[in-house]
């Protein structure tokens, strides 16, 4: 099985990505990956806010909901992270008592033809360490209603990782990525989360990488951040 860094290095432009991993020292971590091709997409950063990580513009007025949004949110027992405004929507559903499957249902892909970027979301339950991934994608046949995949991730052993990205690219063409990839992380003790940040960041194309965040459930405010 390929290592996480190798999988990312083999995908020239992953777009945005969510990771759920258990490092070699046994610590469960989430990660959010942000890359960009245009100047506007690259002029972004992750900012800490109360109970949130916000994807914000570093230049210009900002305010583009497809580029600027709450990328991670933590309330009570739930951590939610993903690539758009659906993070807040899923979090609000969980606050009202919905289960992860229900909270991830009924979402749609982004309205950005011709690629129609998938909306990808991860949900983590702190007390149990269980995680769910959701992806709302446009069908290959072009149906208007999204195809929605929900994955309940089984308990991870040390070194296990699951990755979901928006795109798959060879550097010339860009297409929607496979639903998810099971992989392994080489981040190990001591300092597993630090190793995970480095493993992801170093694997991304230097000309396209924008930001990476790694965080443990219940400690989003202490997220480790890397920026271009």
Structure description:
The chain is α+β, with helices and mostly antiparallel strands. It has helices spanning 4-9, 39-42, 86-95, 100-103, 192-203; strands at residues 16-22, 28-35, 44-49, 52-57, 69-75, 78-82, 119-125, 130-137, 147-153, 160-165, 167-169, 174-176, 181-184, 209-215, 224-227. It has one domain: Glutamine Phosphoribosylpyrophosphate, subunit 1, domain 1, CATH 3.60.20.20. The strands form 3 sheets. Strands 3-4-5-6-7-8-9 form a 7-stranded antiparallel β-sheet. The chain has a 6-stranded antiparallel β-sheet with strand order 13-10-1-2-14-15, with helices on one face. GO terms for molecular function: IMP cyclohydrolase activity. Residues 13-174 form the Inosine monophosphate cyclohydrolase-like domain. Pfam families: IMP_cyclohyd (PF07826). This is IMP cyclohydrolase.
What is shown here, in short?
By secondary structure, the protein is of the alpha+beta class.
CATH topology value: Glutamine Phosphoribosylpyrophosphate, subunit 1, domain 1
- SSE topology string: HEEHEEEEHHEEEEEEEHEE
Fraction in beta strands: 35-45%
* Share of residues in helices: 10-25%
Strand order of the largest sheet: 3-4-5-6-7-8-9
Distance between the termini: 29 Å
Number of helices: 5
Instruction: Pick out the low-confidence regions.
Output: none
Strand pairing plus helix content: what structural class?
alpha+beta
* Total E-strand runs: 15
CATH architectural type: 4-Layer Sandwich
Domain count: the total is 1
Mean pLDDT over all positions? 94
- CATH homologous superfamily (4th level) name: Inosine monophosphate cyclohydrolase-like
CATH class: Alpha Beta
């Amino acid at each position: 099985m390929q290592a996480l860094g190798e999988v990312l290095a083999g995908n020239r432009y992953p777009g945005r990505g969510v990771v759920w991993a258990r490092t070699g020292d046994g610590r469960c971590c989430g990660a959010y990956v942000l890359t960009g091709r245009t100047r506007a997409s690259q002029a972004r950063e992750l900012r800490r806010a109360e109970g949130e990580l916000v994807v914000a513009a570093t230049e210009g007025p900002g305010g583009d909901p497809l580029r600027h949004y709450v990328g991670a949110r933590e309330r009570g027992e739930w951590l939610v992270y993903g690539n758009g405004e659906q993070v807040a929507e899923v979090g609000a559903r969980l606050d009202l008592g919905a289960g992860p499957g229900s909270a991830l249902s009924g979402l749609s892909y982004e309205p950005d033809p011709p690629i129609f970027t998938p909306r990808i979301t991860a949900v983590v339950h702190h007390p149990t360490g269980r995680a769910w991934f959701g992806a709302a994608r446009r069908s290959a046949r072009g149906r208007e209603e999204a195809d929605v995949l929900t994955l309940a991730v089984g308990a991870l052993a040390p070194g296990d990782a699951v990755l979901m990205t928006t795109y798959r690219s060879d550097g010339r063409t860009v297409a929607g990525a496979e639903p998810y990839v099971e992989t392994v992380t080489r981040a190990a003790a001591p300092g597993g989360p630090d190793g995970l940040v480095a493993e992801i960041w170093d694997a991304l194309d230097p000309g396209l990488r924008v930001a990476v965040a790694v965080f443990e459930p219940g400690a989003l405010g202490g997220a480790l951040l890397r920026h271009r």
